[in-house]
Amino acid sequence: MATDTPSVLIVEDEPDLANLYAAWLGDTCDLETAYDGEAALDAIDETVDIVLLDRRMPGLSGDTILTTIRDRGLDCRVAMVTAVEPDFDIIEMGFDDYLVKPVSKDELQRIVDQLTLRASYDEQLQEFFALASKKALLDAQKTDAELKSSQEYARLRDRLAVLRVQVNDTMEELLKQNGYRQLCQDITRDSILQESD
């Protein structure tokens, strides 16, 4: 998600509801709307950042669309926005978040903001670890004099420093959102417990 304006596909078989969601998000997103599963599959490609997906639709269900998105290897975030109460079947499903209807404008905007932020964090982490592994390889293979004289190495170190700050800033922003704060606390606690076992 290189831009600040995410590309969002709303998949909802009730046109009035889909249009309401589009009106709520129109100022902050590039929007496309699909009123059935077939139209959704035609619209989904690598340019879509976020899919807001209804589970229960005539024809192709949201579950089938979700499976197809993941089978195609598309790197978009998917939030189920549905009247279907979550059950244990969601454990195996490849969505990123789940909202139970009715949803408010604030909830919908929040979920889009969170998914945009999470995608940004994932991209930052991927780049950070790729560059960190290159730096580690060069550190092991080159002498200090060679490292100090290399402009490419200096740029690599500078980029890593910038990325470290960006990753930390993005994580701080995620932690401000209560659900993620609890999740991160749980992960940290679980890690500490596993290390002590």
Strands, helices and their partners?
Elements: E1 7-11, H1 15-25, E2 30-34, H2 37-43, E3 50-53, H3 62-71, E4 77-82, E5 97-100, H4 105-141, H5 144-149, H6 151-176, H7 178-196
Parallel strand pairs: 1-2, 1-3, 3-4, 4-5
Walk across the major sheet and give the strand order: 2-1-3-4-5
Global shape? elongated
- Write down the overall mean pLDDT: 86
> How much of the sequence is in beta strands?
5-15%
- Uncertain stretches of 5 or more adjacent residues: none
The biggest sheet amounts to:
5 strands, parallel
Distance between termini? 39 Å
Number of strands: 5
- Helicity, in percent? 55-70%
Radius of gyration based on Cα positions: 21 Å
**Strand-pairing-aware structural class:** alpha/beta
Number of helices: 7
SSE string, helices as H and strands as E: EHEHEHEEHHHH
Any overview of this molecule?
By secondary structure, this protein is of the alpha/beta class. The chain is 59% helix and 12% strand. The protein contains seven helices and five strands. It has helices spanning 15-25, 37-43, 62-71, 105-141, 144-149, 151-176, 178-196; strands spanning 7-11, 30-34, 50-53, 77-82, 97-100. It has a five-stranded parallel beta sheet, with helices on both faces. Strand 1, helix 1 and strand 2 (30-34) form a beta-alpha-beta unit. Helix 4 (105-141) runs antiparallel to helix 6 (151-176). The longest helix has 37 residues, at 105-141. It is elongated and about 65 Å long. It starts with 6 loop residues before the first strand and ends with a helix. 21% of the residues are buried. The mean pLDDT is 86. Keywords: Phosphoprotein. InterPro entries: Bact_response_regulator, CheY-like_superfamily, HalX_domain, Sig_transdc_resp-reg_receiver. This is HalX domain-containing protein. It holds the Pfam family HalX. Residues 7-116 form the Response regulatory domain.
